[in-house]
Amino acid sequence: MTTVTPRHEHGNTPVPGYAEHKADHLARLNKIEGQIRGISRMVTDDRCCVDVLTQISAAGRALQQVALGLLDDHVRGCVTDAARTGPARAEEKYAELSDTLRRALRL
């Protein structure tokens, strides 16, 4: 019987499912960080409430897009690899995924 090494593990060191897209996720997060600093400057400069709220909404959507990208990486990497290793590990990852979605959706 051949043992499948999950993609999210390299030897004993866990590798996150988003490893292949890490640079992309970091670039988006850095952009969002700049956006948040810009919002802070808008408040400091007494900018219009509507403009500030619009930027806050845009930053929230940008964070949601990062979260969706990470979730996609998790499903395609960690969950899929766990399913290949056997039913017990798969069930563990499915439960983890359900909990993650519940938290993300606040259900």
- Distance from N terminus to C terminus (CA atoms, Å) equals 41 Å
Task: State the order of secondary-structure elements, H for helix, E for strand.
Answer: EEHHH
Largest pleated sheet: 2 strands, antiparallel
The top-level CATH class is: Mainly Alpha
Strand content: under 5%
Mean pLDDT: 87
| Sheet with most strands: strand arrangement | 1-2
Would you write up a description of this structure?
The chain is mainly α. It has one domain (18-105): Up-down Bundle (Methane Monooxygenase Hydroxylase, Chain G, domain 1). Helix content is 74%, strand content 4%. It has three helices and two strands, in the order E-E-H-H-H. The chain has helices spanning 22-44, 49-85, 87-105; strands at 9-10, 13-14. A two-stranded antiparallel sheet has the order 1-2. Strand 1 (9-10) and strand 2 (13-14) form a beta hairpin. Helix 1 (22-44) packs antiparallel against helix 2 (49-85) and helix 2 runs antiparallel to helix 3 (87-105). The longest helix is centred in the middle third of the chain and has 37 residues, at 49-85. It is elongated, with a radius of gyration of 19 Å. Mean pLDDT is 87; it is low at 1-6.
